[in-house]
Amino acid sequence: MLKEKDTIVAIATPSGYGAIAVIRMSGKNSIKIINNIFVSISLKKKLSENSINLGFIKIKKKIIDKVLILVFKKPKSYTGEDVVEISCHGSMYIQNKILSIIIDQGARLANPGEFTFRAFINGKIDLCQAESILDLVNSETLFSHELAINQMRGNISNIIKNLRKKIIDLLSLIELELDFSEENLFVLNKREFQKILDNIIKKINDLIKSFKIGNALKNGILVSIIGCTNVGKSTLFNKILKDERSIVSNIAGTTRNYIEENLIINGIKFRFIDTAGINNKTKDYIEKLGIKKTYKNIKKSDLILYVFDCLNEEILMKNLKSLQEKYPKKKIFILINKYDLIKKKINLRNYQDKDIFHISAKYGYGIKNLLDEITFFSKKITSLKENSIIITQTRHYENLKKAIFYLYKVKEDLEKSISPEFLYISLQTALECLGQIIGEVTNEDILSNIFSKFCIGK
Length: 458
Description:
The chain is an alpha/beta fold and 458 residues long. It has 14 helices and 13 strands.
């Protein structure tokens, strides 16, 4: 895609039958090709730029379809090139016929994401905004939609550009210091330098901290349902999803592997995981692998639903103590299940009452209250201040962490009065890390990886 500048074409609407379909074309020959196969209903010989035209697609005097043609003359188009969009009827035959006619006229099929790639190459958007377009297409909730819109508008890009400008200012100060060092003139004001550096570090740290919220809002809050065998985890999982997703039986170790399903509650996406029952005494190799995956899921979870059998209070108390010691920072809801079999509440010492739920997964008792509390908890961990800038891309997060590493190195070397040349190298590396986020600094592998995730036609 980096080398090819020919005219590309693709069907932009999903495969299947519908009222209309959209075929997109971009490149220097787009307008020429459409003029060869389109006859305006007003009998205009050529289509005017930046216009909407009604007429017919014809080949060898045979009408293929009555269509609407949108013409965008460069640079006033999505890709920055001449762009033509054909709105035709949704018949698969019509779509494929028009596509083949355009290819016969000299265009070629577009690669995934090639339209957006050309928009990036031609300076219509930066790399950060290009990724936001993919997020917007894939958005499932109000929150993920708003994050994508803000990123597409350039909110994150503007912050990164501003941070890069400040680093460039610091690099300029060091260059002045190096230029005048032989004349024993000291132009580098350490206090002012430190002030600017601290400001940059603070803003990058704020962006790094926002990634946890951004990841939860975009990909979903991870909720793992854990507990010993036969306590009702799979029954609870099915009850929450309102679907018989997991196999339920009274045989210990029925769930050998974890099962994950998405659920949107009050506009927030959750990823519920039904895990293998924790049975440290098992000798079954497959069951052991499932338990190993359970512990992995616990580590990456935002919330843990620990299910206990209310009929065995002794095991409950023993496991609860072990759980608190092993995961002191994890948010854990204690679910005392099978409450339909016993009518007394179990009081757990040294544990917050608001995090204890007496439920019956089989009959649905207490499930609504549990989901309300899960939603309330999610709003706390995803609460945003007004005009907050949130990082959602792992690629951005990793580059920000690299940048902050080198900026802290600059701060440390400055305090040790290390030679300015070394400060310059670390600052330059941090600048490149930030540049990779918006595409100021990039390589072909990164670009190919990003744009290959797009659908054809976007």
